[in-house]
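Researcher: Going back to the complex we discussed earlier. I've cleaned up the inputs and rechecked each line, so this should be the final set. Can you rerun the prediction on the complete assembly and write out the structure?
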Amino acid sequence: MLDAAFLVRRQAPGLVLSGFCYAGGLAFGLAVSAALLVQAGVPADALVDEFLIATFLTSDGLAQTVTAALPLVLVGLASAVAMRVRFWNIGVEGQLWLGAVAATWLGIAGGGPDGLRLPSMLLLSAAMGAAWIAVPLVLKLRFGVSEVISTLLLGSVAFLLVQHLLFGAWRDPATGFPVTAAFAQAARFGALGWGQLHAGLYAVLVVAALVWFALEHTRIGFYADAVGLNARAARANGLPVTGTIVGLVLLSGALSGLAGMTIVAGTEHRLNQSVGSGYLFSAIVIAYLARARPLWVVVVAVMLGAVFTAGSVLKVFYGISEGMIVLVQGTVLISILMAQFFSTYSLSRPG
Amino acid sequence: MDFLVGWIAIVPSYATPLLLASLGLIVCERAGILNLGAEGLMAVGAMTGAIAVLSGADPWAALAAGAAAGIALAFLFGIATVVMRADHTLSGLAVVAVGLGLTGVIGRPYMQKTFPGIASFGEMFGIDRSSALGRIVAVQDPVTLAMPFLVVLLWWWLMRSGSGLRLRAVGENPAAADVAGIDVQVAQFGAVLVSGLLCGLAGAYLCVATSHVWVEGMIAARGWVAVALVIFARWNPARALAGAIVFGSADALVPRLQAIGADIPVYLAMMLPYLLTLLVLVASSMAGRASGEPSFLGRIYLRQDKH
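Model: Rerun complete. Updated structure for the full complex:
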């Protein structure tokens, strides 16, 4: 029935056509999201205020947007580097939790010279994130276990570990709430004097620049694309297929772990049950919209940072749940996926 | 003994949503469409069920409403994957995001409100709870009782009927099915809608029959466990029943231990179902080629690819 008109895959869709479909899908997804928000009780004129003016065009709003974008850049890169070798890292949240736990452990336990505190938190959180993704990586390479399910399930396990700590050993003795005690000053990123923005900005910029350089200007990016396009052909040509996959997937976990560290050391200054929520789909959406290109990841992450900022405002003033952010992400993602139909295929009627 | 009876009694209510969802996914994936959206489909089913009951609907009507909501979201998934030939993995993840997001935005006023659910056999027939058997039977409900029949029915349809064979042909070799005159897209779209129906029902059951309350995020990765369960079941409804009982038992263990006041690290114990799922996945993957995975699962068929 549906194939009465013949679908033919385009050999190489033109840049204009692809761009047009991408923009059309994005616009359609945003329009649907806006309609859903209006339906949920946000006045239409407030949408422009909250999503554009209060996020980019005021100093406070822009600072908030950039601050929110810092962990988003890291998780977006995490998802992107794994996507380049066709490894679906659906467990970004789990690796982020582990990174946050590692950073918190150093943040509240103390010890060692103050100057080494933040660097050691950075290293340990990255290592823990990488360790957490190593399990699904080994399971996939050794046994062929689908990483989609294993990374996601380990995300749930990581969150339960956090709850175990917060309702147990790490519970704040002062208040009894399931949050840890506040970090020592030496374990916090210093404020930069612009809104909540903190020195984690430098760490994120350096990391993003390194990932960009590695993927776009060294042979790593070339290997990654070869593996992603056709792993068997890459292996037949003598490329280090397994090494590339292992390296980039571990990097993906490490970046997620770093994101967790940036959140607890930068904005929260303690571990609580909500620091990691909302990053799973953010990571996938950022990486997909950015076509897994590091520079675009940064751009999309800042855009999504604005959605996060607007989301927290909408929550306070209009009682809209954080679920709104996930809904916008899902709507935009499926809208762009569908719009690509028009650039990927062409219709031809059977003669 | 007392603990064991209590545990056995609640296992069916934990196994049923997992089984319903995985049966839906089996039908869908047998037609070649990889469906990772179960978590989202179950979420909208659960929320719709809760809203229906809280708005005064009969619990049975609420189950139907949940199933309908699952179908509606699956329709979107079908448009994306079957009609517009989008990537199955990303479309499935988008469905999860849309489902979880919708429930967060719409369901907020209905959170944490308890409601009466489906009457159990004990309430219907006044079963004597003094014997162990009586205690187990009294807490069951018609849906759990219907499960074995549903499994047999689906197994027979998939494995023994003509239309089941045609559906499997689409998932194994759509080009051959196409040549044989089967409408590939109609079969796939139908299968996607069935997965929406059963996953929506699974979510609604979890909410209306088991927990009697709706909270955001109550599906708690059970949709993903169902996805894993399908692999464990090798896409066979009969094995899905066995798997659902194993996973349901693990899932039911923690609340049971809490109920008798056992001093266990609750959150560590709650990891058990997820770790068990991982273990089972490893074991299933080691089975290798005998995994029973439909050959064309997750791939996109175009007539031009026909050889």
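Model: Worth noting: Chain B has 14 helices and no strands.
Researcher: Good, that matches what I expected from the previous run.
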